Amino acid sequence: MVSYQSGFADLIEKYVFYQESSGSWSEVRARNLRYFDRFCAERFPGRALCQEMVDAWCQKRDTETKSSCITRTGVIRSFISYLQKRRMTDVLPMPVPKAEKRT
């Protein structure tokens, strides 16, 4: 089992257990969740999950496509939704990035 290091590792472990039990877990989702955990552990050491973390992680990077942004952040939206349904957080997921308008 992966060892999570953020201040909310216990919530991640519950989410992963739920996803694995339901059979809807994939290595891509697992990898992106590990990256999010590491990002939060490094930039917000020991802190509980907060809106600032989610917003920082979900910002579209200058070098990434809309598709890669959706892939990277999709598991975070799912994780936040899981926590909200169980009244474990009041953090809101970032919306799916919109397509850029071409001129």
Total beta strand runs: 0
Rg of Cα set = 14 Å
Termini separation (Å)?
48 Å
* Coarse morphology: globular
Taking pLDDT < 50 over at least 5 consecutive residues as the criterion, the unreliable ranges are none
The helix/strand series, from N terminus to C terminus, equals: HHHH
- Sheet with the most strands, sense and barrel status: none
Average pLDDT confidence is 89
Helix content: 55-70%
Count, helices: 4
Derived from helix and strand composition plus strand pairing, the structural class reads mainly alpha
* Percent range for β-strand residues: under 5%
SSE topology sketch:
Layout (H helix, E strand, L loop, with lengths): L8 H14 L4 H17 L7 H8 L7 H20 L18
Helix pairs in contact: 2-4
Detailed description of the structure:
With 103 residues, this protein is mainly alpha-helical. The protein is 57% helix and 0% strand. It contains four helices and no strands. The chain is globular. The model has no long low-confidence stretch (mean pLDDT 89).
Would you kindly provide a brief summary of this structure?
This protein is mainly α and about 100 residues long. It is built from 4 helices and no strands.
